[in-house]
Amino acid sequence: MNDAMSAGIHRLWKDTFIRRMSPPPGTKLLDVAGGTGDIAYRFLNFQDQINDDSTSSVHLVDINPQMLEQGKIRFANSQWNLDNRLSFGIGNAEKLETIESNSVDFYTIAFGIRNCTNPQKVIDEAYRVLKPGGRFMCLEFSKVDNPLIGAAYDIFSFKIIPELGQLIANDRESYQYLVESIRQFPDQKTFASMIRKAGFATVGDGYENLTFGVAAIHSGYKV
Ligand SMILES: C[S@@+](CC[C@H](N)C(=O)[O-])C[C@H]1O[C@@H](n2cnc3c(N)ncnc32)[C@H](O)[C@@H]1O
Fold first, then answer.
1. N or C: the chain end with fewer CB closer than 10 Å?
2. Cα-to-centroid distance, 148 and ligand 1 (Å)
3. Please, what are the domains in the chain?
4. Taking residues 176-193, what's their average pLDDT?
5. Distance 91 CA to ligand 1 centre (A)
6. Residues 98-102: contacts with CB within 8 Å, 24+ apart?
């Protein structure tokens, strides 16, 4: 469904997300709401291919055990799994009980925070677990900044996405919820101010729009 809804563009957004992250060798990443590991995969691949680094690791946390099981199957035969560079844990982004304070270099959350009851709690928790100097990065659907493109995007969202959901996944309601939850999520500037409220320092506005703001990357540093 992700591919059908975005014509595969979500893959490019995730690639851009990792390039913006540009993690140095030896990075310890916590990927929250990591699902089946799209971000973990790209991160480890980037470290292997670009940094020639085999010392970075990722711990993937998700609230849904079935998602984690799919992730484990996906990586079961990978070198990263055999090298113990990838681990999985069940957890709620709002209270990461198994993660120590000041323990990770990077914290990522991609298309996950919108589903959480209290996004501010999620950001506060990210601040707690990051080491000083560590970086919070979020990839999420956001608000389109061009009225003309926004109008077309609204038609696509409300008329076509629920139909695709019905056709491909036999589930109109979940995709109706998806488009509504995107509209309810704070806009770029409001979300950036929530990141600053948690204590993070942002560079410039603290965000970068992707595809006219259909999605955005937000980022902040724990100073
Ligand atoms: C759309 S998927 C995104 C998965 C992955 N990050 C990606 O970009 O492909 C959203 C994920 O958020 C997880 N999730 C929802 N609420 C959560 C919470 N409170 N804590 C942790 N994970 C959560 C879901 O189980 C799901 O795996």
1. C
2. 31
3. 2-142+186-221 (3.40.50.150), 145-184 (no CATH)
4. 95
5. 10
6. 99/30, 99/59, 99/61, 99/129, 100/129, 101/128, 101/129, 102/128, 102/129, 102/130, 102/131, 102/132
